[in-house]
# Entry
Amino acid sequence: MRLLNISHLQCYKMRQFCLYLLASLLLVCCKKNDDPIFTINLEQAIPTTLIEFKENILVTITYEHPDGYLGFYDPDYLSLEIKDSRLINADYYHLIPVNPPDHTLSTHGEVLIEIDSPFILGAGSIETLEFKIRIQDREMRWSNQVTTPSITVHKE
# Structure
């Protein structure tokens, strides 16, 4: 009887060890893939110093997408996200498609974004801001985020 209890206890400990081992292996083997499937790079943002209401900001971004799923055929779908660092919410804009319908083509190119002249939100005479930009593809995946250099806005 005592031999039976010892073997039962050993079996229980072995089963418990196997469950811990399995859980540990699952945690180690599962890796969340946060890498974007396509990338964008900030090439240029000009001007970086301006007078409010006088000049728009021109931002040039290069993109590379292995399937060419940039831009939407539906003009109501907004896939370009631009966030002013001074504000809570981002603004969204439409991007036209870069490849023909029903085709998968590796694409790369440039997008020129014209951002309306920023204005000073506070009571001061100078403010600095940055824009954070990213693009959503037709598979609903977001690109990496790029940030413009600091832009200084002066009151007129």
